[in-house]
Amino acid sequence: MNILVTRTARRDLTETYDFIASSNPDAARRVLDQLFEVIRQLAVGDLKRPEVRLVDGRRARRWSIAPYRIYYRRSARQIVIVWVYHQARRPIEK
Question: Is the pLDDT confidence value at 23 over 70?
Answer without folding.
Answer: yes
